[in-house]
Structures are given as C-alpha cells and as structure tokens.
Write a structure and sequence with these properties.
Layout (H helix, E strand, L loop, with lengths): L5 H21 L6 H4 L9 H11 L3 E6 L7 E8 L2 E4 L3 E2 L2 E2 L1 H23 L6 E5 L4 E5 L1
Antiparallel strand pairs: 1-2, 2-3, 4-5, 6-7
C-alpha cells in the first residue's frame, strides 16, 4: 500500500496562494470597514452634528441658552400650530429614545387626566404625541 504525502501539502499550498491573492487585492483599497471594528465616524463639529440630528427629526436648531458661558446648551425646537415646543429628546449625543418614551408616557397620562376632567364638565383639550420629534403637543 502506497501513502501519498504530497496531496495535503498541495491543497494547503493552493489555499495559501488564494490568501496571498486576496491580500494583494486589498492592498490598494484597504480592508473593508466592517473588518476594522472601529467606532462610527463622529463629526468634528459637535454643533453641526447636533443641528443635523435636529433637522433630521423635523426641528429647528435654536440659539444656545447662556451663550458665552460654560453652561451654554444647544436647543432644538419644533412648531405645531401657533406653539413652539422644545424637543427634549434631541441631545448633543443624538436622539434620546428614553426621553422620547417618557414624553409619550406623559402625553398618555395627560390624555387620561383630560378625559376625566371632561367627564366632570370642564372644557376639553387634546394631547397628541409626535414620535418623530418626541414632543407631546397640547391642542386647545
């Protein structure tokens, strides 16, 4: 019985050449981003990033409160009807899902309270939650 010892080495050599060819192909272009495991790109200007997130959610960046001080805070507003609302869910870090959820819960609670007040004969107001902005609009 004759043992072929060259067969596994030949297969290994072919696989090695494939790895070398693939590596050569990646050299001019670099490795794909998903292989890098880097953190996502962060805009160099936090103000521009905040303004983009604000506009992406239908808001308008407002002048910072306390301008010129260390307490300066960016704000994002949205207009519904005649009223302008502060979008609490828009933060310098992006859209805050937790804050938006609390706004929705507050809106639902306000609706329940208003229904109870209407049952007692008071004038009725309505509350509408806007998921894209995270704002609870109060309508007369």
């Amino acid at each position: 019985m004759r043992v072929r010892r060259g067969a596994p080495l030949g297969r290994l050599a072919r696989r090695g050449w494939i790895v070398v060819v693939v590596a050569i192909l990646f050299l001019p272009f670099g490795a794909p981003r998903f292989l890098g495991q880097d953190s996502p790109h962060v805009a160099s200007d936090p103000g521009a990033r905040f303004a983009k997130v604000c506009r992406d959610h239908g808001g308008t960046p407002a002048p910072a409160s306390g301008a010129g001080t260390a307490a300066a805070q960016r704000r994002c507003t949205v207009r519904y009807g005649r009223h302008v609302y502060l979008m609490d869910a828009i933060t310098p870090d992006g859209f805050d899902e937790d804050t938006a959820r609390f706004q929705r819960q507050g809106c639902e609670e306000a609706r329940r309270e208003e229904r109870a007040a209407t049952a007692r004969g008071r004038a009725r107001r309505s509350f509408v939650y806007h998921a894209d902005t995270g704002v609870c609009e109060r309508r007369p």
